[in-house]
Description:
Layout: H1 9-15, E1 32-42, E2 45-53, H2 58-75, E3 80-91, E4 94-104, E5 113-115, H3 116-125
Antiparallel strand pairs: 1-2, 2-4, 3-4, 3-5
Helix pairs in contact: 2-3
Amino acid sequence: MWARLSIPLLALTALCSCEEAPAQDEAPFMPVYEGVETRLLDGDLVNFFVEMRGARGSSDVEDYARCAAAQYALIRGYGFARHLRTNVAQEGGLWRGDAVYTISAALPRGLKTIDAEVVALACAENGIPMV
Length: 131
């Protein structure tokens, strides 16, 4: 019939996760934005090089480059930008982004377009510096 198992109470409680472990406090996000370098490649094609410390991942670096592109478009009198590519690398705590955008007065074709004014406002609200 039924076999009796003799499992020590301590071992049984170790198998049971009756209480969740308390969540560890994550360190607050405190980025240090090291700067933006902008290179006009050809007419409306612009390359942005950004550097920062304290990024949580590549998306923080991409956001920094997006903010730079939005502000650059506005400075040049354009209202839109289209993302072409971003390469991100990290070494010794320094994150580097190499992003290429096209800027234009009218909404460009493509999926990765940004309204420069809207993005610049969001960047200001989030404390991300721009060009």
